[in-house]
Specification:
The chain has 430 residues and is mainly beta. The chain has 1 helix and 31 strands. It has a single domain, classed as Methylamine Dehydrogenase, Chain H, CATH 2.130.10.10. The longest helix is centred in the first third of the chain and has 6 residues. The radius of gyration is 20 Å and the shape is globular. It starts with a helix and ends with a strand. 51% of the residues are buried. The N terminus is likely disordered. Keywords: Signal.
Length: 430
């Protein structure tokens, strides 16, 4: 059953951060010990929605404390007025003043695709009045955010308002104004197969990469699944696509995530087949991706449900979470074309590792194990075990450390009690 589901799963869903004055990263050159270095992180935000809205639950931000005395405890829950958004990705602004949250299926119910929460009191975020937030006008199916140094965001919008092509990349100011949707719909009204999911940005090289994943409407029951093999390079000076790369010859089909490798002008993207690809965005065309890492360790079964990644800011480490492997892999990417496996955080069979995120100081992280379950209307049923798991890294970021295991597991099947099961997808660490 799982293999069958996986064949159709590289479907809807993950990271870059603009240069900013975030907390200093510890050195990776120190002793290789299980250090007790204190993290500056204080809270984990989990963006989750109710499985059964009839029980009264709302799409909400759950705030989990990372302080020693209340580690792993949910200290507040901030509900929205909605219960049909399908909470997806979320990200904290580079100014640490707001949390941006995406509603993947908002277009199906006429609810907002993008919500913001104000973080003046990070323990109790406050929902910004949705009426004050400009919503995208030429695109829908909100997915992944990239934080911009000025406090704004980029956001991949995976499809049109009807779930077709093209989607766009939305650009938000720090005060929730929609600056643009790119490429400019007036100049480029029709871009065949443009359904962006993952995106990564090299601000120094003024280059962005997006990967086309799937036509959202094609995931609904009765439709043939339409997945893509295209990767697009952009010039962010004018927000235009400079090159569309057909990566089908490299085995890519349904690429989900893309990230920048520090400020090298190169990127990693996940190919929908268990492989992570390296793409150097510098120099003249054509740009050809090459396989850098096999998250399946040579397995003959290449069925995929995607792999979300989180890069370290200096480009020497990468976290990769292949859903069907139920694990988070810690990779040494000092040689970006030839990563090495340092350690594996193995989850129980069937858990389904998905979104993985690190704190700004890169000492503590979390992984969510819910991808997407469309229920009776869709073809995607990858609920995982609907938990969030906390972990730490040692001094040199060579090993996972699991402290207080019982408190490091937050089970969203039980946290809301009478409101039933919640499905945790988006993660962000304050």
């Amino acid at each position: 059953m799982r293999a069958t589901v996986a064949l159709i799963l590289s479907i809807i869903c993950c990271s870059a951060l603009a240069p900013s004055a975030l907390a200093a990263r510890r050195s990776l050159l120190g002793s290789d010990s299980n250090s007790k270095t204190a993290t500056t992180a204080t809270y984990l935000y989990v963006w989750a929605g109710p499985k059964d809205a009839s029980l009264g639950g709302k799409d909400s931000v759950f705030v989990i404390s990372l302080a020693d005395g209340e580690y792993g405890k949910i200290v507040s829950v901030v509900p929205t007025p909605y219960s049909t958004l399908e909470p997806h990705h979320c990200r904290i602004s580079s100014t640490r003043t707001h949390l941006a949250c995406a509603g993947l299926f908002s277009a199906l119910t006429g609810t907002p695709s993008v919500l913001f929460f104000e973080l003046s009191d990070p323990r109790t975020p406050k929902l910004v009045d949705p009426a004050k937030v400009d919503q995208p006008k030429h695109s829908a199916f909100a997915d992944e955010f990239v934080a911009i140094a000025d406090g704004g965001f980029l956001l991949s919008m995976m499809g049109s308002s009807t779930g077709g092509s093209p989607g766009r990349v939305a650009h938000y100011s720090k005060d929730f104004k929609l600056i643009g949707e790119y490429p400019d719909p007036a100049k480029f009204p029709d871009i065949p197969g443009f359904n962006p999911h993952g995106l990564g940005v090299s601000w120094v090289h003024k280059t962005m990469v997006t990967v086309d994943y799937v036509v959202p409407a094609s995931t609904l029951v009765g439709n043939p699944l339409t997945m893509w093999s295209t990767v697009r390079l952009w010039n962010i000076s004018d927000w235009t696509i400079t090159e569309t790369i057909d990566a089908s010859a490299q085995g890519v089909k349904g690429p989900m995530d893309a990230v920048a490798i520090a400020e090298t002008g190169a990127f990693y993207f996940e190919g929908g087949n268990g492989y992570i690809y390296y793409l150097d965005g510098k120099g003249p065309k054509p740009h050809v991706p090459v396989v850098a890492w096999d998250t399946y360790a040579g397995s003959a079964n290449r069925a995929s449900a995607g792999c979300i990644m989180h890069p370290f800011r200096n480009g020497t480490r990468l976290l990769a979470a292949p859903f069907v492997r139920d694990q988070v892999q810690l990779l040494d990417t000092t040689n970006p074309k030839k990563p090495k496996l340092l350690d594996t955080f193995q989850l129980p069979k069937g858990a389904g590792a998905h979104v993985v995120r690190l704190s700004a100081d890169e000492l503590i992280g979390a992984v969510a194990t819910y991808f997407l379950d469309q229920g009776a209307i869709g073809q995607v049923h990858a609920a995982g075990d609907m938990t969030v798991r906390l972990f730490r890294l040692n001094d040199r970021a060579t090993k996972f450390i699991l402290r207080q295991p019982a408190k490091s597991l937050i089970d969203f099947k039980t946290v809301a009690k009478k409101q039933g099961i919640f499905r945790p997808h988006g993660l962000a660490i304050y």
